[in-house]
Amino acid sequence: MRIFVAFGTRPEIIKLGPVCRALRHAGAHVDVFWSGQHTDLADGLMDLFGIDLSHGGTGVVQETSLAGKFALITQQMQSVLGSRQHDWVVVQGDTTTAAAGALTAFLNGVPLAHVEAGLRTGTLDSPFPEEFNRRLVTIASTLHFAPTARSRDNLLREGVSRDRVAVVGNTAVDALLHARSRIAVGYEPIDPEIANLPRDRKLVLATLHRRENIGKPLEDILGALRELANDGDKLILLPVHPNPDIRAQVVRALGRQPNVRLLKPLQYTDFVFLLSRSWTIVTDSGGVQEEAPSFGLPILIARESTERPEVVEAGFGKLVGSDRHAIVTEVRRLTNSDAPQLLPARNPFGDGEASRRIVERIFNASQVQHAAE
Ligand code: UDP
């Protein structure tokens, strides 16, 4: 079986890395297509998951508009997908690369499998691409791998047939457990700033990258972090996303602030190490919402809504939007003790076996298809 796996951003490598490993383990030939949306965030991930990112597209980072990126990625995928016989295309999530992969698979008549299917915010909020991309991928998919029952139900409500949807868990948990096994004993962090964390401070992690927050919302969130840094008992750690609009705002607001460390984007194992040491996280990241429950870590979601409400329902996450007062109050509440207020670890997004289930289902579907021919 020959499988075309398309990805282009850091979270996609993290979430498709375990799927590629499981596919290879099952004997499939995997053609990795790397579109290079996040070239500068891929450090260390190739080694961690044994994937080769040297095949794929070029020039996508130079394209400034998302429509331009979409066009370029689609064209470059076509030159690979149109010239070889693939049994499946696999894409993940809601990125421009996933949407381009879906269109290219559809137009070439190759069945598409969508990993992390069925997430919805419920609003198509132009010009933000995620919800649009998710729905586009759904329309083109033959198999939908929903991480939770809720995401399955979203798909069923939209008329996707039940026999094409499988609830498998989120492969983010597979990746996290893999990385956590690497940091279990005697881990030496790669980033020297992480290797030398002060022991007498309460660590508050922050990650902010979402386009919908750029401008006033981000200004308010950063204002809250500045206020918290002035408390003196906390150290705010913020790996700064390379998006130039985000970076500029973060550096302007927190560049000279005591008790704040602005870090380069961390390699995944360092980031997981930091999750295991933090008291709480202020984040607009999707992946971090899926990872925190494995550490029992309470998180504050700096968004107005989340397509991962399971994290809120399970008691790990609270939606705080960009409300400065709410962020300050909640972080202070979570750090007003002598030790981190961790919850019993229980991840609503999966058990680390999602990739195995996905691969089994793809192989079974192919057998049924061949038997019918
Ligand atoms: N992450 C990382 N280094 C960092 C920050 C995040 O490896 O400095 C990982 C994190 O563990 C998670 C993923 O990157 O798995 C989240 O990426 P991001 O927030 O950029 O995207 P999203 O998940 O919102 O799509």
Helix-strand blueprint:
Elements: E1 2-7, H1 10-25, E2 29-34, H2 45-49, H3 66-81, E3 88-92, H4 96-108, E4 112-115, H5 130-140, E5 143-146, H6 149-157, E6 165-167, H7 171-183, H8 192-195, E7 202-207, H9 216-229, E8 234-239, H10 244-254, E9 260-263, H11 268-275, E10 280-283, H12 286-291, E11 299-301, H13 310-313, E12 317-319, H14 324-334, H15 354-372
Helix pairs in contact: 1-7, 1-15, 3-4, 4-5, 7-11, 9-10, 9-14
Strand/helix succession: EHEHHEHEHEHEHHEHEHEHEHEHEHH
CATH superfamily of the largest domain: Glycogen Phosphorylase B
The low-confidence runs, each spanning 5 or more residues with pLDDT under 50, are: none
Q: Distance N terminus to C terminus?
A: 16 Å
Number of domains: 2
* Count of strand segments: 12
Strand order in the largest sheet: 2-1-3-4-5-6
CATH topology of the largest domain: Rossmann fold
Family: Belongs to the UDP-N-acetylglucosamine 2-epimerase family.
Domain UDP-N-acetylglucosamine 2-epimerase: 25-362
Catalytic activity: UDP-N-acetyl-alpha-D-glucosamine = UDP-N-acetyl-alpha-D-mannosamine
Protein name: UDP-N-acetylglucosamine 2-epimerase (non-hydrolyzing)
